[in-house]
Design brief:
Length: 174
């Protein structure tokens, strides 16, 4: 595997967000192979040893990827954490054993389909204009999800789709 930015590896391992990783690195709390690092430094996750706050971080190489179709109800903000203490979409997926993040945004007072994943390449492909994927702004109910081929079920107040492959996820996003 090629070298990657340390903050990206920390985020992918679920330690924190990429921005939080940059802050932790800037505070001097991260070392690779026993040496302090700077924001933007790279490491080879197959070869190098990462420590945060003097604790070794064991890097999972074959991480389970998750792709969720979440029904976001009104009153939740689409962010991983909120400095104002409001409810976030992360509260709705706290039972998933991975650090997920939203793909796109819905306003606090909006409700609807929100994709969530821990696959950065998928999120980039779906959200970046160069991916050529148009957004679905008017997906209203489970029947419409079924017509798109999503095997959906309601769990509590949230709509979750089954785990699906990257190809299937891209098909749903189109």
């Amino acid at each position: 595997m090629a070298e990657e930015r340390i903050q990206k590896i920390m985020a992918e391992q679920g330690l924190c967000s990429r921005r939080a990783a940059e802050q932790i690195i800037a505070e001097g709390r991260v070392k690779v192979n026993g040496h302090p690092v700077k924001v933007g430094d790279k490491m080879d996750p197959n070869r190098d040893v990462l420590h945060v706050d003097d604790e070794r971080i064991y890097i999972q190489k074959n991480q389970q990827l998750y792709y969720l179709a979440l029904y976001k109800p009104r009153g939740y903000v689409t962010t991983a954490s909120d400095e104002l203490g409001r409810k976030t979409v992360m509260d709705l997926v706290s039972d998933i054993p991975a650090r997920l993040y939203p793909v796109g945004r819905l306003d606090k007072d909006s409700e609807g389909l929100l994709l969530m994943t821990n696959d950065g390449a998928f999120a980039q492909a779906v959200t970046h204009p160069s991916g050529g994927i148009s957004k679905l702004d008017d997906l209203r109910n489970i029947k419409e999800l079924a017509e798109l081929g999503v095997d959906a079920a309601i769990l509590g107040k949230s709509l979750y789709a089954r785990a699906f492959t990257l190809e299937e996820a891209l098909e749903v996003a189109r």
